[in-house]
Amino acid sequence: MNELVDPLVFWAAAAVQVLGLASVLFARLPRATKSHDYGRGIYLGCLVVLGLATMIAIGSGSGYWAWCGTTFGVMCVGGTFDVSTLRPDAF
């Protein structure tokens, strides 16, 4: 049974990390669209799941905490990064 749990946990954590990083891009869309609202919801959900996964991985002594913690940090910075200052004034 342990052989099935470890790959399952790995691929579940990897899927949440990829979805979380993609949701940062959707959450930072400049226009208020329906996909923007969905992106924000998915972003917040993935942020909570990654935070919990990081805490559980640290508590269990698993090596997944570094990946989950790094993705969590990137999502936190990406969610608060202001992209409006990157636009040139001419537009």
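That was protein one. Protein two is written in the same sequence-then-structure order:
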Amino acid sequence: QIRHKNRIESDSAGFDCLVGNPPYVRVEFLELALKKYLKTHFVSVVDRCDIYVAFVELGLRLIQGDRYCGVIVSNQFLNTDYGAPLRNLLAGKDALKRLVDLNPLQVFEGAITYPAVMICSSSPTSEMEVLAMERKAEGASSPARDTQMFARYCHEVVTVPSASFYDSEVWSALRVTGGGEMSLDMLSGVSLGDLCNISSSMKSGRDQILVATLLDETDETFEIKSSKQDKRLTVSKQVWRKVLRPKNLREDRTIVPASRVVFWPYRDDDNQDEFVLIEEREVRALCSETFSYLAKYRKDLENRRDSGKTWKEHNRVWYSLGRIGKPSDYNGPKLLSPGEFVTPRFVRDESNDLFPCARILGVSSIAVDVNALQKYLNSKPIERWFRANLPAKVGGYRGMSVGDLARLPVPHKTHPVWSKLKQSDSDAESVIESWITAQLASK
């Protein structure tokens, strides 16, 4: 109900109650002017967030007195980097009164949306109610249209102090398994990010120009063909490097040799663990054919965009790449995993080949035995963690980010689990299950 009287006064303007289903649209898909407006006027709109966060922030502004705002949104803001500003906003106002995480139920037919219902109050609340939906069967995706089906997935409402929820920061800390036990997220204070370097590092900014098919190679050169022209080029390995793609990581956890190369105008500075850009005159001297080819597309490369600005506006060197990572990201031995998968698979890679941003994740600089970690990550118990924490997309695929993988719970690097996994192939599953059981018992 709109308050009609004294609407212009700050203490009475606004609404008694707001109820809505905001649109779910990634901010990078918006026009540049609208993107700038949202990022200027809403503290919750950052990076590549979804614009529903702005609707939640606006709802908090519009309710007055002891009033409520209830919305159904994606639950992704609960554990993503882009959701941090919205979580901080809710924490600062103590606004979140009830949270119902509907995952894995799908309430919208034909769309997988990871839905959650938020009830926010304009009056600070010291406690909040949490209703978690059970993550039962793999692929549970039929719409929840009746209360009986809804009830089958429900756990009891849990009342928690608001401060503890916000401090935990990650929604998975409140999750429970179908059997009512604590989830793997509660088992250990150590996460995979504590044991190794996790990266998703290489982005050219214009693959049609800077990435090419590998036709042949010698000790010093590649013979390539780009999608921009039919002509075959012979280029120097000093400024081109092989790059793996998800299709190179086979289901049997072996690697098909790279069939693509990327222009790579960098050399390693091993003392600083960083790449140093090769100067333009040196690129020309090292490989004149490469330079002549790139020069044809100089304007296209200068007009690449990042964060709304072109390379030229950023004062970036026209032939530099969008993201490059650091040498330790690529040094073998490392483990590689597709960023999207049906069943998780981590493949051992001994090469120094590059891999594309977001499409492949790399695990390098590993503090435990590499083979032991590979067994751990490919095990059935850990697959259950991926299924619980990475909701299925259309087609059954799951998307995994660097942050998702970094927070995977693991034993401490000195724990005997690692030596047992190193020594045995046959009982890796039981070793991991025993560790989980012991951790649960200690809790």
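The longest helix spans residues 428-442. Keep this in mind for the problem set.
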